[in-house]
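Blinded run. Sample ID left blank on purpose so nobody reads anything into the name before looking at the predicted structure. Input follows.
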Amino acid sequence: METNTLLQIAKDYGSPIYVYDAEKIVSQYKRLDTAFNKVKQVRINYAVKALSNISVLKLMKTLGSGLDTVSIQEVQLGLKAGFLPEEIIYTPNGVSLDEIEKAAKLGVQINIDNLSILEQFGTKHPKTPVCIRINPHVMAGGNTNISVGHIDSKFGISIHQIPHILRIVENTNMNINGIHMHTGSDILDIDVFLYASEILFETAKNFKNLDFIDFGSGFKVPYKSGDIETDIEEFGKKLTKRFNGFCKEYGKDLTLAFEPGKFLVSEAGYFLTKVNVVKQTTSTVFAQVDSGFNHLIRPMLYGSQHEIINLSNIKGRERFYSVVGYICETDTFANNRRINEITEGDILAFKNAGAYCYSMASNYNSRYRPAEILWHNKEAKLIRKRETFDDILNNQIEISL
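Blinded prediction complete.
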C-alpha cells in the first residue's frame, strides 16, 4: 500500500489502527493455489485464528477457500460468514468431548488429536467421519512456542501410537476419512516438511477410506528486507509429484489440504501508531507510541521482528531508536532500530501485522482495542469499530458493597 494512503487512513480513523490490503491477500491465495495446480483436488483452508474478522472470512469465501478452525466459536464465525459446514475443518486441542460433539452436530469436519477423545467419540458416534491429527515428531518452526510437531508437543497423536489408533478404530468401527499434521510455523527447510510428509503418507496407508490428507501449514513469510521465506513454488513442485504418486499407490484421488493463516494475511497487514513522545535517556532514544503489547504482542511473546516505517518522514535521514509502548511494563517493539528520523506526532507503520496481531490483542491496562480497516477496491472500509469505555464495562456487574 502507498504511504499516502496509510497516512490518510490514520488521519481519518485515528490511531492505533490495523489496516489490511485485500489485494495482497488475494495474490497470496492465488500464489499457493497455483503452486499446486497439477493436483486434481486441492483444498486451502484459511486458519481463522490468524485473523478472524468476519469481513476477512467473507473475502476468503469469495476466493474459494475453506476454513481451519480451532474452537466452536470460530466454527460459528465461519458459518455466520457463509461457509458451508463441509467447507470447515475443526481442529481443537485439549477441549471437552462436549465441545467436539457440538461442532459435529453443526456438520463440520472433525479432527481429533488425542486417544482418549478418539475412543470416546468413536464409541458414541461411529458413523461420523473423523480426521486424525498425527504428531510426526519433526521439529519445525522459528520459535518453541510455535513449533508443534516435535516429540514434546501437546499436539497430535504420536506416530508411535499408531497401533493404539488402529485398535480404537477397529473396536469402534469408526469412519476415518482424513489424516492431518501441522509441524509448526515459520518452516525454513522444505526438505524437513517433505520428510514429515513421508511419515504422513506411511500413516495414511493404514486407513482404507480416506478422502483427504491435510499437511497443515507454517509457510514462512519475510519479515524484513532480504529475509528468507518458504519457496512455495519449489515446494509445490516437489510435494505435487509425491502426492500424485501416493494417490496412484493408494488407488484413489485424494484431496490435498492445507491450512495457511500467516502466509495469506501477514504481509497484507499494517499496524499504524502515533508517536507520543521522543525520550532521550543516557544511553537510548525511545520513540514512545500510542500502543503496546496489548495490541501487538508478537515481539514480546515470540521475539518477532516487525519492520517499522516512519510514514511521516519516509525520506528522512536514519537514526537509531528503540520503539516502545505505553503499557506499564516493558513493551518493546524494537531495540536500537534504524528508522527515518522521528518527531512527536509522526505515524509509524508496523509491517506484517495481518496475522496473530489483532487476534491476540487485549484490554490490558483497560485500554481500548483498535479499529480495523480493509483496503478493498481502492477504498478504506471500516470492518471493526474502535472500542469505547462502554466496551470496557460491558459484561461487568457492579454490586452493592
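Unblinding after everyone has recorded impressions. Residues 19 and 281 are 32 Å apart (CA to CA).
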